[in-house]
TrEMBL record:
It comes from Paramuricea clavata (Red gorgonian). It comes from the Eukaryota. This is Uncharacterized protein.
């Protein structure tokens, strides 16, 4: 029985020695900040060795009791308690290490996320800058086209403004085209402003307002010229009509003998006062009797 006790004690001592060696390895790995996988593996081995120490201790105590050997219970309990403290201390170091590793990993992930976000922001900003540049260039192109239209229209207006019979139709067509170009400027400016921040956009809205002002000014000039032509034409027609009213129109009833005199009077006195479009109408007004009946149903063309 004494031999069994000695063998059990030796086995316990051997288990303790192996356990302590592995404790040192694990602590060294933790202090060296080895990989988590290596530390986890060494702790797993240590856990098995700790279980072995406990079994060997229980075997030793059992052999003492079986041999009826008197032993110091407090001393033996102190031995296993000391070993338990060693294991608990290593366990705390291991847990603290993994908490640090996890925190470091979270910090790394946060940094990586921040870096990724910054890269995405840079990409978005770069793409946004490109979009702004393209929109700004498109706006410049349309502004150049608008100002060229204005220049052409001002030249045409200058050429027509002093004419007694300005080309109103041409001016109106040119004004319509300028209005279309203004709307195109409005469209591209809207697309450009949408890409800007609120403060910058506020300044850029004034760009279109300045073009609107230019259009309004030249549109008014065109309107004045067209109105002047209309007034001149109306005055001319009224003057011609009044002059004819003051004159006594020659009359022709259909008598062939009266025709030479009628024709002479009409060509000398009436025809010079008429516009080409009014000749047929006035001529019809000079006819009566059989002559009027003969052409009554004919148009004034």
């Amino acid at each position: 029985m004494v031999l069994e006790v000695a063998e059990a004690k030796l086995a316990r001592t051997s288990a303790k020695r192996v356990f302590n060696r592995n404790v040192k390895k694990l602590v060294d790995s933790i202090n060296s900040k080895d990989t988590a996988a290596l530390i986890e593996s060494r702790f797993k081995d240590l856990k098995q060795l700790w279980d072995d120490v406990q079994r060997k201790h229980e075997g030793y105590i059992e052999s003492l009791e079986n041999s009826k050997t008197t032993y110091d219970v407090e001393q033996e309990d102190g031995w296993i308690d000391e070993m338990d403290k060693v294991y608990d201390d290593v366990l705390r170091q291991k847990l603290a290490y993994f908490e640090t590793v996890e925190e470091d990993q979270r910090e790394i992930e946060r940094q990586q996320e921040q870096i990724s976000k910054e890269k995405e922001d840079q990409i978005r900003k770069k793409e946004g800058d490109k979009a702004i540049f393209r929109a700004e260039q498109a706006r410049k192109v349309e502004e150049i086209a608008f100002r060229q239209e204005v220049e052409n229209l001002e030249e045409a207006l200058a050429a027509e403004i002093d004419k007694p019979n300005p080309a109103a139709s041409m001016l109106e067509t040119a004004r319509t085209e300028l209005k279309r170009q203004l709307e195109e400027c409005k469209r591209v400016n809207g697309e450009y402003v949408l890409l800007l921040d609120a403060e910058t956009a506020g300044y850029e809205i004034a760009w279109f307002t300045s073009l609107q002002k230019i259009y309004s000014q030249i549109s008014k000039k065109i309107g004045d010229v067209i109105q002047r032509k209309s007034d001149t034409k109306g005055n001319a027609m009224r003057g011609s009509t009044m002059k004819l009213e003051r004159m006594k129109l020659p009359q022709f009833s259909g008598n062939i003998r009266d025709y030479p005199r009628f024709r002479s009077d009409f060509e000398k006195q009436i025809l010079p006062e008429l516009e080409s479009g009014k000749v047929a109408y006035v001529l019809k007004s000079c006819l009566e009797g059989e002559a009027f009946d003969a052409i009554y149903n004919l148009d004034d063309d």
